[in-house]
Write a structure and sequence with these properties.
The protein has 407 residues and is α/β, with parallel strands linked by helices. 35% of the residues lie in helices and 13% in strands.
């Protein structure tokens, strides 16, 4: 299968023998706790895309003790408030990785912190840098700029470093990454899209927090029909916000929208941009992170500088005034993400980073036994044994046998 991704050197992770399926544990500090949860949804989507190709499982909060640091304000925000719990979280994650990877071929770590855990756990790992903007000065790009030696400590030890944007990939290479690959987040392309609402709607989907440019969004759309799907500390600025909307209902909001906006100050490659483009909707977004790699100014949407309220409003007004322009940019946007971000491409590129071909399918389904509570996980009986700490607070008595080559 051809992959429209960055070509790199030969895979750093050896492929398993024909009779030995590759087993991969996805290590993450954020994962959906239920079907309507947005937390770490792109990780869950990737895991589901890999199902059938590799024996994949998830090590998420619940599979290790997170001491209340994983959700709510996010890991970085919670650690700032309760820094004394951070060492306990680190130890808990290291122990969990050692147990999980003791019978798995590979750990796929999401975010730099998870990669550091794999280093301390002495496990072979692939690292994905998502560049999430909510981490502030602890975001991947900011850390690479401010503390390159710290980032180098992790990325040089990863078998492969996957970055969701070329901006992140360049930073990883500067910090010494040996095999750095650009693989964007994946997105599902709907078979058809709906009709815009009347009067025209301007849609924002995401967390209502300062780094998302919520104040600027409200100022730029004054007098417009603004629809906001999200929640967060700045909810008081958008009193008519819908709150977090279940993912299966977001498609209708994208279809109704005339324009989708993303005025963030920091981003990796936001799903709201990919999903809007998949629904043939033009996007007005800040020129930050990986956004300019998909949103080409005047071709698939419009780019503005973060914090530029006047520029944001002018771009939105231009699109609202010209339905033909919206259709042209929306059609080009869908073609762009179909080429670069379809699950076929993303899955194949990720499997290549593991050292196997996408055509080498296996009949396994994702095992979410290591703490993830998303429904429809097979092997649930083993979940209660494998996840530590268990409900009674004791470690399971059955300890998996270590496999050679993973120490």
């Amino acid at each position: 299968m051809s992959v429209a991704m960055e070509a790199t050197v030969a895979p750093a992770v050896p492929a398993p023998a024909d009779d030995q399926p590759l087993r991969v544990v996805h290590l993450t500090t954020s994962y959906p706790r239920h079907e309507g949860d947005f937390a770490g949804r792109f990780v869950a989507d990737l895991v589901r895309g890999l199902a059938g190709h590799v024996d994949v499982s998830v090590l998420a909060p619940g599979g290790y003790r997170d001491f209340g640091l994983a959700y709510g304000r996010g890991l970085v925000g919670n650690v700032r408030r309760r820094p004394w719990l951070a060492p306990l979280l680190v130890v808990s994650m290291i122990l969990a990785v050692r147990r999980a990877a003791g019978r798995r071929d590979l750990v796929h770590a999401h975010w730099l912190a998870a990669g550091a855990i794999c280093v301390f756990a002495r496990r072979r790992f692939v690292l994905t840098l998502h560049g999430s903007g909510t981490a502030g000065r602890f975001a991947d790009l900011e850390l690479a700029r401010r503390h390159p030696r710290l980032v180098r400590f992790v990325v040089r030890r990863a078998a492969v470093v996957i970055c969701v944007s070329e901006a992140l990939a360049e930073a990883a290479r500067r910090c010494g990454g040996r095999d750095v690959r650009t693989i964007p987040n994946g997105v599902e392309l709907p078979a058809s899209t709906g009709v815009e609402a009347e009067p025209a709607e301007v849609l924002f989907v995401g967390r209502l927090s300062p780094e998302k440019g919520i104040g600027e969004l409200v100022a730029a759309t004054e007098g417009m029909n603004l629809v906001v799907a999200g929640d967060g500390p700045l909810r008081h600025l958008v009193r008519d916000a819908l709150g977090f909307v279940p993912h299966e209902e977001l498609g209708d909001l994208y279809d109704r929208a005339a324009v989708v906006v993303c005025p963030s100050y920091r981003e990796g490659l936001p799903l709201c941009v990919l999903e809007a483009m998949a629904h043939e909707r033009p996007v007005v977004a800040s020129a930050v992170g990986g956004i300019p790699e998909l949103v080409e100014d005047g071709v698939t949407g419009y780019l503005v500088e973060p914090g530029d309220v006047g520029g944001l409003r002018a771009a939105i007004e231009r699109l609202l005034a010209d339905p033909a322009l919206r259709r042209r940019l929306g059609s080009a946007a869908r073609a762009r993400v179909a080429e670069r971000c379809s699950w076929e491409h993303v899955t194949a590129a990720t499997l290549e980073s593991y050292g196997i071909s996408a055509g080498r399918d296996q009949t396994t389904m994702p095992s979410l036994q290591y703490g993830a509570s998303r429904p429809a996980a097979p092997r649930v009986a083993r979940a209660r044994l494998a996840a530590w700490p268990a409900r009674n607070g004791r470690r399971p008595s059955a300890r998996p046998t270590r496999r050679r080559g993973l120490r």
